[in-house]
TrEMBL record:
It comes from Patiria miniata (Bat star). Belongs to the GLMP family. InterPro entries: NCU-G1 (IPR029382). GO terms for cellular component: lysosomal membrane. Residues 1-26 form the signal peptide. The chain crosses the membrane at residues 364-388. This is Lysosomal protein NCU-G1.
Length: 402
């Protein structure tokens, strides 16, 4: 691990782990920086350091940046820039209601692509019919995530990750961990999402967030609302697609992958997940529960944008041409509701480019071929045998009749 302290900004290179694991040089050199706030107003926030984490992946010809923050609604901005681009923060304007322009790259023309994902609402609902989904008859209570008290973030330079922790009620926490990658691969923990040199993983964990005092929901479950935005809609609007595969070797029991795409030319960006969450810290198949997704809303008028977020600081309202909002809920019929473990954890990938696809591995092909092949052989040979004997019989019969 190489620490470099320059311009009072501690810069940490996160490539060591990649090097150890992969044994060769990463496609992008990763750095993680907690952008230093240098104005007096910062003292009003926890420890004088608002959460604005900058993960930077420097490649041969361009840089991918992830800005990760809980100033307002928790959000990640993905930007691809030319190599020389510098992130500029006007802290006064950023902390003063996340004014547009307070977060930018200089020079402005260095930005080649940008999009963002925000988490806007936590929805607690009483699943009256115990089917896992939110229905119009279900009582619900919404919490704007921008209104939570967010603790000082923690950076782990070994795996290039940053955790933002929001407090809810007495003991409740929403933890959001963003991990950057400098090279393609697949995580060792479930659901074994794929990552690329252009993507990050976001793990959302909701612990003890049930609010019985206010809601009295005996059948409480949770849902999250997410909003994605992009600059340009010339290549199309935000869309969602479910890809199914016959192969569940990486995520046992889960045969599909959901992709929310923000198309752009030459490449857009995506949010990808598997419809599975985990109700205990140890992620196992037994602790896996379904994640339902709801209708993707793409009509701007129907989407509530948070009052404050780094997205507002980075994009002017008229720049946002692509927009999509989506709810996802956690849990499945007869699982004992959220209260059974008071815990749910879910992972998604956010990346530049096309979402990685699940390929069927050679092993699975062999298994399928053998599995289908033997009965097929029996049918073919058996069938042929039957045909031959029938034919012979026919011949015999026709000979007899002649
Ligand atoms: C901010 O906090 C630091 C350390 O806690 C302190 O030294 C400094 O005087 C404070 N500045 C203001 C403007 O409150
Ligand atoms: C960078 O650009 C050069 C010249 O266009 C190209 O040969 C090379 O493949 C590019 N590198 C990457 C990682 O895309
Ligand atoms: C970016 O910052 C570096 C180091 O502070 C500086 O040398 C460079 O000129 C800056 N580039 C731009 C485009 O402002
Ligand atoms: C929640 O749902 C259960 C089961 O249908 C019902 O008995 C209970 O009254 C509901 N509670 C509220 C607050 O709606
Ligand atoms: C940082 O990440 C590494 C690798 O995942 C892990 O082994 C280590 O315990 C983490 N450190 C902290 C302080 O969480
Ligand atoms: C919060 O946690 C403490 C200690 O674990 C427990 O005694 C208390 O009942 C919890 N409060 C709520 C509202 O769950
Ligand atoms: C919750 O239930 C308790 C006992 O049934 C009742 O006294 C209380 O008023 C209820 N609270 C709300 C917010 O409905
Ligand atoms: C793209 O966005 C503009 C401005 O929001 C809108 O007028 C236009 O209809 C959109 N185009 C498509 C194809 O959705
Ligand atoms: C998410 O669910 C809440 C509560 O049912 C609803 O108010 C909101 O409009 C939904 N968001 C989207 C994008 O459908
Ligand atoms: C990553 O981004 C670069 C552009 O910088 C692109 O050429 C490459 O295909 C992308 N990789 C993946 C896996 O999408």
């Amino acid at each position: 691990m190489a620490f470099r302290v320059g311009m009072d900004v501690p810069i940490v290179f996160c490539t060591i782990l990649t090097l150890l694991v992969k044994g060769f040089v990463a496609d992008r050199e990763l750095e993680i920086i907690n952008k230093k706030c240098d104005i007096p107003k910062c003292n009003q926030t926890h420890d004088g350091q608002p959460n604005l984490v900058h993960i930077k992946g420097t490649g041969e010809n361009d840089t991918i940046h992830y800005l990760w923050s809980s100033i307002g609604a928790p959000a990640v901005i993905l930007a691809r820039t030319t190599l020389g681009a510098n992130l500029t923060v006007n802290w006064k304007d950023l902390l003063d209601g996340t004014k547009t322009g307070s977060l930018s790259f200089q020079p402005p023309e260095s930005v080649l692509y940008s999009s963002a994902l925000m988490f806007t609402k936590l929805i607690e609902y009483n699943d009256t019919s115990d089917d896992g989904t939110i229905q119009s008859k279900d009582a619900r209570m919404m919490t704007e995530l921008e209104s939570l008290t967010w603790q000082k973030g923690t950076i782990n330079s070994t795996d290039c990750s940053a955790v933002l922790l929001g407090k809810l009620g007495d003991n409740g926490t929403i933890s959001m961990k963003l991990t950057g990658f400098g090279k393609g691969g697949r995580l060792t923990t479930l659901p074994h999402l794929q990552y690329t040199e252009n993507s990050t993983q976001l793990d959302v964990t909701m612990q003890n967030v049930m609010n019985m005092i206010y809601t009295n929901y005996t059948n409480a479950r949770f849902a999250l609302e997410m909003v994605v935005v992009g600059r340009d809609n010339k290549s199309g609007t935000v869309n969602i697609k479910e890809d199914t595969s016959i192969d569940d070797q990486y995520t046992p029991g889960t045969f599909s992958t959901l992709n929310v795409r923000l198309p752009d030319s030459p490449l857009g960006s995506y949010v990808q997940w598997k419809p599975v969450s985990y109700v205990k810290k140890g992620r196992t198949m037994e602790n896996a529960r379904h994640v339902y997704e709801y209708k993707l809303e793409t009509t701007r008028e129907n989407i509530d944008m948070p009052q404050t977020s780094i997205v507002r600081a980075f994009f002017s309202p008229k720049e946002i041409e692509q927009i999509g909002a989506l709810n996802v809920s956690f849990g499945i019929t007869k699982d004992g509701f959220y209260k059974k473990t008071n815990y749910v954890s879910w992972s998604i990938a956010i990346g530049y480019g096309d979402p990685p696809e699940e390929y069927i591995s050679l092993t699975v092909y062999i298994v399928i071929s053998v599995g289908l092949g033997i009965p097929l052989l029996i049918v073919v040979f058996g069938g042929t045998g039957v045909c031959i004997s029938k034919h012979k019989e026919k011949k015999r019969k026709s000979l007899q009749s002649n």
